[in-house]
């Protein structure tokens, strides 16, 4: 049976139809077909879809094209054959008379009118059906919706612009009616601004309201804020649910009027294959570690509708007591969900992360003083200039060192991988600078600055501080390059994962020869203390305890070896082993799926040996070995002009990755691990916005709901959705209104 189009000058294959054969023949102007019967035409001839108007065609699926019942072909090429007379031999075109042409035009016009009327009838029927489905609203309900819409618009503006805002219902209840009426705030001010700007609805609403009626009670304002926050969060969570796999990231505790709260971020790859790390909520940190862990899990599952079975990583920031608690919380989550591997965050240097987590008072004092010192000089360019002068005085004749120290001190050096090396080099200039500021001979500094300088100088001039700093510098030197590679490019992370054995070997060697290493480290600390005219001695607090029990006097070197160097080395070794667990290392070694890493390894990689970790998460695990082989072959035999993607993000953006579903899924899961550097600025922006909010907002003016709106101001908001959510959540408020 022929399967080619019967129209002149067309060689495409066609679709079959049983409709009005004679009319079709007349329109396509095939004189040789006029004598054919309808059965012959239907059996032996076809017209393809290109000869029908788009309105005549129904696409029931991407693979099937169906004509409407009234479809008539009207699009034909009747002139291109003129340049090629041989084309007329097979499909002869009939030459029409003027009368026949006029009849065809009239028929086409009638067909168009019928089609238009048919479409109008369908549209009218659909509109009537939709109208029946939509419930009719009373004027009061319409007014309430308009008021809520305006209120939500104001709330979103307050949150995004971080305006101070009070929504304390208890304070509102304690005020008298007159006080509540006279109390003004940003919400009321913005409502009044909308009225003055010509918002006719708000004008009518408040002109007809009672004289002493509130714009919006504190309780209702809080409800509006909660709905705003919920809708913004739900917009993010919906994207997380769509991608399934995610990781949890938490930050330092944040102080609010109602207590300390833990900021929670979620890291995931969205539908556009972009890695994102979004802020979700502040979680209450009250209670013991077990209670906090249960609260976090409950919020993730029941509150946010996520499955912890899809959590593939967790990273928790924190120092001192918080760091210790977060370690317990992370361990509990990992015990229950083994695939939620514990990793450091990509925004914190590994050495800083390790030092923050050490449960040693001396180490935490060092970390606290270093942060205060860095913040002290960032407060004013004049203070930084004073430090530069101190560096110049102590580095006379060594221009290179002077330049390095000045440049380093102007950065946020407390976040660097070599923070402890930098701190040791800056010790003498820092103490000289602090003493100069505290003396304040030229009365340049105010009392607050001189007081802060004195407190920092007292901490710096303590031998316990110096020896702790020096030991941290030397002990963490074995993990410095390893940690730097973890925050480097993908190829660096891959090689870091394969170099962990060497790092652990070095740490074990130090532990086995601790006396020798400690002797050198203590001598370095003593030399630095001597240069700064600081006496070498055992901490005063320990001496007091020693006198109480009347034990033998202990030497400083022995004391710091037993109470500092030994526990520091034990902690570093154990923590590195725990952080870089077997599952974590397997995942990082699978970064060889990135084509640039493959190329570096000359395409001699063995992902199959490590891919079992996520096999159950893949769409087609049975075909994984064959797919990995094809993936290597594809990039190995690429064209010379084709460059190798260097990151997971670049690989996921490649057009061919969709043909490798297992590799695609594997890379998306890998990208969620918090240890990997973020491509772009999604996650870093969320954390920077959090820090900006905390810096700009006093503790007594902070509001969790507004903070979520402010940090996530890039998330689209649907006012109509907020109105619907409010009406559904607070039906009693709607009835009272």
Automatic annotation (TrEMBL):
<feature type="domain" description="THAP-type">
    <location>
        <begin position="1"/>
        <end position="76"/>
    </location>
</feature>
<keyword id="KW-0479">Metal-binding</keyword>
<dbReference type="GO" id="GO:0003677">
    <property type="term" value="F:DNA binding"/>
</dbReference>
<protein>
    <submittedName>
        <fullName>52 kDa repressor of the inhibitor of the protein kinase-like</fullName>
    </submittedName>
</protein>
<feature type="region of interest" description="Disordered">
    <location>
        <begin position="120"/>
        <end position="139"/>
    </location>
</feature>
<dbReference type="InterPro" id="IPR052958">
    <property type="entry name" value="IFN-induced_PKR_regulator"/>
</dbReference>
<dbReference type="Pfam" id="PF05485">
    <property type="entry name" value="THAP"/>
</dbReference>
<dbReference type="InterPro" id="IPR006612">
    <property type="entry name" value="THAP_Znf"/>
</dbReference>
<keyword id="KW-0863">Zinc-finger</keyword>
<keyword id="KW-0238">DNA-binding</keyword>
<keyword id="KW-0862">Zinc</keyword>
<dbReference type="GO" id="GO:0008270">
    <property type="term" value="F:zinc ion binding"/>
</dbReference>
């Amino acid at each position: 049976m022929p399967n080619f189009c019967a129209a002149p000058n067309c060689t495409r294959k066609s679709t079959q139809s049983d409709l009005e054969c004679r009319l079709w023949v007349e329109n396509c102007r095939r004189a040789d077909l006029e004598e054919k019967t309808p059965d012959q035409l239907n059996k032996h001839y076809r017209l393809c879809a290109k000869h029908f108007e788009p309105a005549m065609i129904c696409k029931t699926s991407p693979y099937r094209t169906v004509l409407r019942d009234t479809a008539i072909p009207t699009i034909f090429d009747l002139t291109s054959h003129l340049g090629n007379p041989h084309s007329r031999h097979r499909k002869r075109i009939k030459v029409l008379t003027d009368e026949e042409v006029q009849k065809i035009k009239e028929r086409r016009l009638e067909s168009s009118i019928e089609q238009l009327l048919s479409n109008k009838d369908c549209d009218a029927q659909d509109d009537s059906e939709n109208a029946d489905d939509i419930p009719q609203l009373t004027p009061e309900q319409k007014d309430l919706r308009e008021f809520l819409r305006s209120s939500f618009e104001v709330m979103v503006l307050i949150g995004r612009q971080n305006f101070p805002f009070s929504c304390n219902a208890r304070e509102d209840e304690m005020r008298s009616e007159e006080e509540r009426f006279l109390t003004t705030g940003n919400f009321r001010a913005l409502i009044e601004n909308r009225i003055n700007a010509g918002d006719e609805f708000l004008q009518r609403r408040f002109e007809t309201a009672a004289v002493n009626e509130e714009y919006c009670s504190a309780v209702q304002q809080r409800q509006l804020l909660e709905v705003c926050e919920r809708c913004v969060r739900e917009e993010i969570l919906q994207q997380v649910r769509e991608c399934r796999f995610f990781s949890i990231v938490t930050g330092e505790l944040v102080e609010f009027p109602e207590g300390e709260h833990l900021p929670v971020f979620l890291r995931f790859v969205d539908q556009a294959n972009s890695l994102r790390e979004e802020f979700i909520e502040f979680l209450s940190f009250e209670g013991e570690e077990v209670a906090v862990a249960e609260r976090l899990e409950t919020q993730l599952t029941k509150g946010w509708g996520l499955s912890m079975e899809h959590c593939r990583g967790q990273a928790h920031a924190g120092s001192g007591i918080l760091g210790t608690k977060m370690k317990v919380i992370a361990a509990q989550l990992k015990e229950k969900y083994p695939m939620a591997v514990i990793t450091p965050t990509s925004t914190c240097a590994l050495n800083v992360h390790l030092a923050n987590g050490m449960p040693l008072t001396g180490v935490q004092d060092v970390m606290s003083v270093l942060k205060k010192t860095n913040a002290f000089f960032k407060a004013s360019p004049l203070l930084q200039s004073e430090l530069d002068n101190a560096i110049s005085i102590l580095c006379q004749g060594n221009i290179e060192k002077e330049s390095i120290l000045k440049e380093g001190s102007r950065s946020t050096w407390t976040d660097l991988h070599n923070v402890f090396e930098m701190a040791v080099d800056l010790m003498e200039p820092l103490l000289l600078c602090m003493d100069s500021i505290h003396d304040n001979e030229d009365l340049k500094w105010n009392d607050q600055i001189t007081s802060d300088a004195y407190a920092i100088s007292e901490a710096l001039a303590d031998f316990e501080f110096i020896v702790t700093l020096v030991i941290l510098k030397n002990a963490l030197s074995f993990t410095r390059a390893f940690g730097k590679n973890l925050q480097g490019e993908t190829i660096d992370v891959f090689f870091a994962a394969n170099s962990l054995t060497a790092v652990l070997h070095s740490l074990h060697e130090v532990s086995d020869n601790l006396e020798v290493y400690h002797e050198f480290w203590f001598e370095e600390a003593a030399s630095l203390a001597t240069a700064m005219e600081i006496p070498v001695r055992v901490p005063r607090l320990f001496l007091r305890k020693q006198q109480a029990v009347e034990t033998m006097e202990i030497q400083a070197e022995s004391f710091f070896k037993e109470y500092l160097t030994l526990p520091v080395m034990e902690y570093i070794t154990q923590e590195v082993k725990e952080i870089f667990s077997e599952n974590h290392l397997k995942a990082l070694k699978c970064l060889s799926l990135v084509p640039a890493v493959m190329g570096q390894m000359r395409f001699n990689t063995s992902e199959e040996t490590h891919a079992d970790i996520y096999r159950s998460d893949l769409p087609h695990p049975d075909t994984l070995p064959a797919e990995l082989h094809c993936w290597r072959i594809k990039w190995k035999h690429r064209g010379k002009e084709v460059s190798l993607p260097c990151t997971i993000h670049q690989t996921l953006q490649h057009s061919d990755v969709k043909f490798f579903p297992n590799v695609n899924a594997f890379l998306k899961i890998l990208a969620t691990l918090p240890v990997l550097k973020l491509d772009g600025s999604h996650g870093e922006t969320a954390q920077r916005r959090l820090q900006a909010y905390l810096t700009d907002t006093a503790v007594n003016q902070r509001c969790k709901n507004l903070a979520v709106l402010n940090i996530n101001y890039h998330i689209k908001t649907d006012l109509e959705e907020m109105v619907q959510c409010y009406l559904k959540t607070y039906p009693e408020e709607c009835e009272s209104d």
